[in-house]
Amino acid sequence: MNSSKDTIHAEVANYYSRKLSEHGESPRGVDWNGEEGQTLRFVQLSRVIDTGRPFSINDIGCGYGAYYDFLSMKHRAFSYIGTDICDDMIGVARSRHSEVDNAKFLLSDRPVEPAAYSVASGIFNVRMQRRDEEWLTYIKATLDMIAESSREGFSFNCLTSYSDRDRMRDYLYYTDPAWAFDFCKRRYSPHVALLHDYGLYEFTILVRKKT
Question: CATH code for 2-208?
Answer without folding.
Answer: 3.40.50.150
